[in-house]
Design a protein that fits this description.
The chain is α/β, with parallel strands linked by helices. The protein folds into two domains: 271 residues, Aldehyde Dehydrogenase, Chain A, domain 1 (3-Layer(aba) Sandwich); 184 residues, Aldehyde Dehydrogenase, Chain A, domain 2 (3-Layer(aba) Sandwich), CATH 3.40.309. The protein contains 15 helices and 25 strands. α4 packs parallel to α5 and α9 packs across α10. It starts with a strand and ends in an 18-residue tail after the last strand.
Length: 497
Amino acid sequence: MLELKMFINGEWLNATDQETCTIINPANNEVIAEATRASVEETRDAIDAARSAFDSGIWSDLPTSERASYLFKIADKLEENAAELSALEMMNVGKPLREAEFDVADAVACFRYYGDLVTKPSDQTYTVADPVQGLIVREPVGVCGMIAPWNFPLLTGAWKIAPALAAGNTIVFKPSEITPITTVKLFEILEEVGIPAGVVNLVTGGGSTVGNKLAESNKVDMISFTGSTATGRSIMKAASENIKKTALELGGKSPNIIFADADFETAVDYALYGIFVNAGQVCNAGSRLLLEDSIHDKFVESLIRKAKEIQVGRGDDPATDMGALVSEGHMNTVLNYIQAGIDEGAELVCGGKRITSDGLEQGYFVEPTIFINTTPNMQIVREEIFGPVLVIQRFKDEAEAIELANDTPYGLAAGVFSQDDAKALRVIKKIRAGITSINAFNLAYAEAPWGGYKQSGLGRGLGTFGLDEFSEVKQININLDVCPTNWFEGSRTVQSN
Ligand code: NAD
């Protein structure tokens, strides 16, 4: 069994009160680790370490090429340890090994991308009427508090830590109390490559203690949060204490629109991938499938047939297509949603039950589930279920598809399938969502901005926008005519607003 410590100011520590979180493998309910549980005081120590490291300039003053070289070393180490990291991610989250391997590869790509990007020229100049040369420079925000969810632990860490370090910030990171293992491994790598003490700090523990302390602390300049919309709301309130910069990646209930002229097999394939990968525990899952009337029945029939072929099982079984849900509590939430759908009168046409056969008795497995004959006000249509539950709506024309797609408080992702390029682009441009695809779903790249409209969040991670997110922007006006303004003598040489 692994014993996971926190990492503060370059030292691996246990909580002084010896409190721990028990970490399980959701595929068999076996205990795989005990993670130390930081107190509010220990979180404060981590914040103080990050504050001193930032204020000393030990990281932010490094040339960008030197910061980049650390990021490349981190990527190399992640790659060297990919087999171990994938196995641990599989075991802790319950996902198939193949998915965990993709997550590790994406984390490697993210560190390399920001290593490259940060050395490219980014500053700008401006010319004004005065004899002034203007410069616009990017600077780090300062101490960044980071709070992560449980569904893509290593990848979420990479998405936050790579751009933040590239930009010159220092960090206090809180992983989910359910899936901290690969984050601890990532911090071992950060230590191994020689990131100076205090620049990166890891505090394992609870949301209302560690997470809330990070959000409210006056010594933290920015909070970068990924998680549910409900928690995001409370983080925004806590962060208002010192008006800290807030980046929020929140939940979704994303529409995937299939027109009758779509390539049928491609659309069916992505509809399944959009909802059943990672057992539907994906913020940008295509959890609402919008089908044009004329293809509805044929499409549903094909979906059901293929969904029934999905092999649900343990992540270490090579035959497994879909793994376990992350915990018993989360499985029960998903099962309660399925029951709510039945009670509201939606028609359950596939799955709907927990799987307890063939050696899966101790794990938290739920069948790929599909509902049809839904109405827009049903709970299963409006709320994020975050499990393998696909809710189908039908539409008669383009206008109705757009109306249904946008009828949600969320705005994270969307997809449109059609072989009419003009129609597909017209429709996707009308959808209020940040992560969209045409004739594809569930794509994520380090190069592309990640984030949502409406209650799916604030700001953008990844791409060049991700570096901006972890930066402040400063204007520098350089007077090229160094002489008095004579403002109070009734004339002046330098203009101002
Ligand atoms: P969650 O909101 O319950 O928890 C996320 C993190 O916040 C955890 O580390 C938790 O300990 C912490 N937390 C809880 N209460 C807190 C508080 N009061 N103050 C500070 N921190 C607190 O979310 P979850 O169940 O871990 O993850 C699932 C959710 O995350 C889903 O809604 C999903 O859509 C969302 N998500 C979004 C993205 C995205 O990129 N938009 C990515 C992954 C997950």
